[in-house]
Amino acid sequence: MNETTTEILALPAFQDNYIWLLRVGGYAAVVDPGDAAPVLAHLADSGDRLCAILLTHHHADHIGGLAELLAHPQTSAGLPVFGPALNNIAGVNRPLSGGEIAVLPELNTALDVIAVPGHTLGHLAYYGASLIDSNLGALFCGDTLFGAGCGRLFEGTPTQMQHSLAKITALPASTFVFCAHEYTQSNLRFACVVEPDNPDVQCRSREVAAARSAGLATVPTRIGVELATNPFLRWDEPAVRIAAAAQLGQPPQNAVETFAAIRAWKDRF
Ligand code: ZN
Ligand code: FE
């Protein structure tokens, strides 16, 4: 399906956002351009033409550069702008609610659109099962899953978010996860408190500290790494259930209650 290799670049924006740019053969698509400037700088340097914009959710740090990009001469006329139908975002001409396929013909790629309500109600993720390699996928998940963390529940319920995260963890463990923020190091400080005896969390904390002091990004991450170290995905883990019970004052009854207790704890952490 994806015969040409897709290059995926991180364009840093603001304090800790990443705008992800997919490029093949002189064309580029961007995910969550909160700021136009880094995207325009890439187009100027590379000569790439912008052929699609994908939005995960309506927050300003993810859509703020949209109007300026649409007005730019290196932007193709009629450029598809994919985004959540629920939010009526100005400029979105491919409104989505999950279950669709976002076709990017210039990149020879099609991405599955997955509804992941929780951080916002309309939140979407985009998944290319063979984007990295013929059997190695990539997920662009905005503010739903972070390195060792997950997005805050601004609009959705814990039930919605836990179900959204479960959809993500059902993808192959090898899948690369392109999160929209560099939050991994601070998230791991919380993960160490939730699971002080998890050696994978300890090991990842050291690796991430070294990467950050070298000025390196800690994303993309992989689903398998998150399953081993992310307390927001480890609702079946006895140590996480015990930590949730200590917060609740009674044992959690199910995965949603465990997740909700950990999320509420992190909000106060
Ligand atoms: Zn957000
Ligand atoms: Fe954000």
Indicate the topology.
Layout: E1 7-13, E2 17-24, E3 27-31, H1 36-46, E4 49-54, H2 60-63, H3 66-70, E5 81-84, E6 94-96, E7 101-104, E8 109-115, E9 124-133, E10 136-142, E11 145-146, E12 149-150, H4 158-169, E13 176-179, H5 184-194, H6 199-213, E14 221-222, H7 223-229, H8 238-248, H9 255-268
Parallel strand pairs: 3-4, 4-5, 5-6, 10-13
Antiparallel strand pairs: 1-2, 2-3, 7-8, 8-9, 9-10, 11-12, 13-14
Helix pairs in contact: 4-9, 5-6, 8-9
Bound molecules: zinc ion and fe (iii) ion.
The site of fe (iii) ion has 6 residues, from helix 2.
Characterise this structure:
It is a single chain. The protein has helices at 36-46, 60-63, 66-70, 158-169, 184-194, 199-213, 223-229, 238-248, 255-268, and strands at 7-13, 17-24, 27-31, 49-54, 81-84, 94-96, 101-104, 109-115, 124-133, 136-142, 145-146, 149-150, 176-179, 221-222. The chain has a six-stranded mixed beta sheet with strand order 1-2-3-4-5-6, covered by helices on one side. A six-stranded mixed beta sheet has the order 7-8-9-10-13-14. The mean pLDDT is 96. The radius of gyration is 18 Å and the shape is globular. The relative contact order is 0.12. The chain has a single domain, classed as Ribonuclease Z/Hydroxyacylglutathione hydrolase-like (Metallo-beta-lactamase, Chain A), CATH 3.60.15.10. It is α/β, with parallel strands linked by helices. It binds zinc ion and fe (iii) ion. Zinc ion (ZN) binds at residues 57, 59, 119, 143.
